[in-house]
Design a protein that fits this description.
By secondary structure, the chain is of the alpha+beta class. The chain is built from 18 helices and 13 strands. The strands form two sheets. Strands 6, 7, 8, 9, 10, 11, 12 and 13 form an eight-stranded mixed beta sheet that branches.
Length: 398
Amino acid sequence: MPEKPEYLPELPDHPELREIALVIEDAGMMGEILDASFRCVFLSTETARMIGASASEAKYLVGKSLIARSGGKFTRLVQATEESGIAWFQHNAPIMRRYLEPDDPGFEDVFDYAAPFATEIDPVEPAPRAWHDTVSFPSDLGFRRTMLGDQNQVQMRISDDAGSFLGVLYLYRSTVPESLLQRLGRGDPGLFERMDRVSEPGRRPAGILFADLEASGVLSRRLSSRGYFDLIRGLTDLIDSSVISSSGIVGKHAGDGGSALFLTEDFDGSESATARATIEAARAIRDGARELGPENVEVKVNVGTHWGATLMVGQVATGGRLEVTALGDQMNEGARIEAAAKEGPILASKDLIERLDSGDAQATSLDPDTIAYTPISEIGGAGDKAIRDAGAISVTSI
């Protein structure tokens, strides 16, 4: 799919505001800067990402006051609930009135539709050095609501060395406690960035991986509940770490298995590099499984790998989770390929293997030109569902 133009924030002309903007951007923080007239002169990259704004939409917001843009053409990006919006106005309008008089040339532009109310508001004295608000967003924002959540806004007055008012620094953060965010933030940043790039669903070619614990029922009966829990936890970590180290996206975990995607766009558009990463992750899972569980228990993981040329891939975010989901016939086929694997092999489809170029084939010790394949329908022990849904697909053990 065509890439959207990247948002590149413009820096304020004022040297002191520019210095602050550079620090916010370099730190990767969500924030913006308003000038002495309460117009936005800087919107950070992370703020644009937070509200789901395209490059053109983000640039539209710069140059406007927070009040004016809440009623503009991109209201959907910044519109708070009516209750929190009113509370924000009641708190911030007196502070703004401290620096803006009704006869100022820009008064009506800044206060926009709220200008008649603002003329009746008494300025706050003295102006605070810092203040904060909590803003909520409407539930009918759907997917975007799960991106934004409730938000804390910390505002700080910016003055020069002589004490002259220059503007206001806005810093945004979730209302989730910092201690919890730190724990949630222990995940791999590269994985989260790959997940963020598919926030909008679209057709994306990808390598597909499914992994499942062999003889899970037998193992659950042989091990204590705690021992089996530790085994599943170790397997989950093995799948995730193997996928992440190969630049893939961790998919759903279902009981004693998991899935993953390797998007071609994350490998500079190379189908060969994507297929290689899928194979390397599969082998890491297979080999790592031997180290799981107690010494007297043999652990095997069955892995199926496939190619999805026309998968619909996108982010699914709810109040309880954030994950990437892929839909398409090839996902179902990939699951059936894994189901046909027995006693811990990796089954790879012909469609995946033949995407390897000579360099990646050599790196994986595979020769696509000489490999012999077997249709799933001819694999001994393949279940009825595997034969029904993927019986004609040719696979090989790698």
